[in-house]
Design goal:
By secondary structure, the protein is of the alpha+beta class. It contains 3 helices and 7 strands, in the order E-E-E-H-H-E-E-E-H-E. The protein has a 5-stranded mixed sheet, with helices on one face. Strands 1-2 form a two-stranded antiparallel sheet. The longest helix is centred in the C-terminal third of the chain and has 11 residues.
């Protein structure tokens, strides 16, 4: 999807129009869905910024927060950190978008832990 010169959003003609599966996943800050921060905010009202260069006291969500995608909606953000020394994936916080009913993220956290080689998960 891109913004046309006339200000309208254009979709690629080969884009699928079937319903998006209702699975939940964490997105990288560099995922093409949210990489263009202005587009993500215009399309979904999801204001997303990397806060790693923001002083800790001024961060809104966390150092390296990941968007949470369910189906075709950005439903929240999670601030995980991997302590390599102890092998623990720690969840500092989860922030749900307004109007979103919180859901279990255990499956997604186990998948992330396996991917990064964490031996355990701690939620705060």
């Amino acid at each position: 999807m891109r913004l046309a010169r006339n200000g309208d959003w254009e979709v690629h003609p080969d884009a699928a129009s079937e319903p998006v599966p209702a699975r939940t996943t964490f997105l990288s800050p560099f995922d093409r869905l949210v990489y263009d921060r202005d587009r993500a905010e215009a399309l979904w009202g999801f204001r997303y910024r990397l806060e790693m260069y923001v002083p800790k006291a001024k961060r809104e969500y966390g150092y390296y927060v990941l968007p949470i995608l369910r189906g075709d909606r950005l439903i929240g953000r999670i601030d995980p950190v991997f302590d390599r020394k102890s092998g623990v994936l720690r969840v500092n916080s989860v922030h749900w978008e307004p109007g979103v009913k919180p859901t279990s993220l255990q499956k997604q956290l186990r998948s992330l832990a396996k991917f990064i080689g964490a031996g355990s998960i701690e939620e705060r």
